[in-house]
Every structure is written in C-alpha cells, then in structure tokens.
C-alpha cells in the first residue's frame, strides 16, 4: 500500500508515474514497465508524447510552403502514437487511472516539466520519446535536469533483450551529499520489491582518509579498505534501521565505479544512482557514472535527484 509523505510532492498519493512514448520498441518496453509499476504502487499513469513543433517549424522555416503539411502529418502521427499507447497501457494495467498528453513541446521539455510532481519519470533506452528528438540529447537532458527519480528502462541483450524482473537492487554509493537521496530511494525500492540491496562503493576517487582524519598518502591499501568499509557502513546505518526488513550486502572496490555497476547490472533488477558526480559541481548535473549507466547498463537504471 502506498504511504503518503506530505513533505514530498513525489510521494503524494496523487503523484503519477509519468512515461514518455514515441512508438519505438524501447518506448513500448518502457510503457509496459511503467504501467506495471503504476499498478503495483497503486498510482495513476500519465502518458506523454512531445512533438517539438517549435523545433520543427524552425528547421523547416526556409521551406514555409511545406510547414503546414508537415505539421499536420506530425500531429496525426502524435495522435496515433498516444492513442496506441493508451490502449496498450489499459491492457497491461486495466485498473490504473490513465491520462494522456500530446504536446507541441519537445520530449525533454515535456518530461522535465512533469517531473516536478511525478512519482517517477520513465523513458525507454531507445527511441526519441518525441518526434524529431535525438535519443542521446533527450535521455541525457531528462536524466540530468528532471526532478525526483528518473527511470531508464534498459533491456539485457544477453537475455534476449528482456527486462530483468528478479535479482537484487544495486545502489551506487559515492559519498556525496546528493547521494543521500539515492540511498533512501534504493532502500525504499528494495523494500517494495522484497529484494536484497547490494550497496557498491568504489573508493579510488573518494578520499576516505580525509573522513578518518588522516592523510591518505600515508595510509596503506589495507587501511583505506578498512576505512572505506567503515564509512560505507556509517552511511547506510540510519537507513538500515528504517528498513530492517531489507537485507544489505556491502561491496567496496578500488576502481572503475561505472564498470563495477555495469557488471552488477547483469544480475540486478534495478540499479540506483545519484544524479551528480561525487565532485559536487552543480554545473555537472549528470555524473559520469550515471551517464554511462543510463546508456550501457543491462537492467533498468534509476537516477535520483536530491530535493531542491
């Protein structure tokens, strides 16, 4: 049963699962996944399609005579995409309240705007989620600039392009203040799914010695490993008390956070990461690890943004 958190608009009982669609195979997979999530969490489903008419007319401006015909074609296509998506969602989740939105905005603008009060924003790892958008720019813009949680539904090419439905929830812990939101989201997901939580921390570019009051230059590898395990345990302790039913496995590695999490994604049902890199630069809105995972992981990836 969904519990309402009055201080968090993303967890109000009215907060919908928002999904972007464009008729592609990746979009269809994300739509079905989002409909199932909405049904499981007892939430409404909001289906969006962005036509990017402003961008379209800008591109075709020099051919003014063709603009109305092209715009009409794009509108007709958008209506067909959104109608089909609604029918698919009703088939997957017949008891879920469903709303749709066909917009002149770009896919990225539309999804980012609706993320403010969404339970989660869901999009596929292929397709454009709009008309003339580019996969990379749309996906990365939404994961970088949306509010709350964004879930990129990735399939596993080594398993017939199926979506993982079993395995642990895997959390990337980077030690940054922004990462606290990801820790909370990962525990909540593991509890909802009845899954084990694997907390992965790579200490190579997190100066654990600084937290221990020592200069890491003078610490041995063994000392750093012990220190990082202790810091990881401390970061998770409060959440383990809040979610005593969640079994937690801690993994500490020396190098390559993106590579380690990609490896875990082969057996995970969900990977959860924070939206920013551990350096904390506000201009770098999507960290390099998150950037790599939303494009290359073998399971769905949740990118969590801290509350504003």
From TrEMBL:
- InterPro entries xrefs: Rossmann-like_a/b/a_fold, Universal_stress_UspA, UspA
Q: Name one GO molecular function term.
A: ATP binding
Top-level taxon of the source organism: Bacteria
Which UniProt keywords are listed?
ATP-binding, Nucleotide-binding
Give residue ranges for domain UspA: 17-154, 168-305
Pfam families xrefs: Usp
Q: Which PANTHER family match?
A: STRESS RESPONSE PROTEIN NHAX (PTHR46268), UNIVERSAL STRESS PROTEIN RV2623 (PTHR46268:SF27)
* Name of this protein: Universal stress protein
Q: Which organism is it from?
A: Nocardia otitidiscaviarum
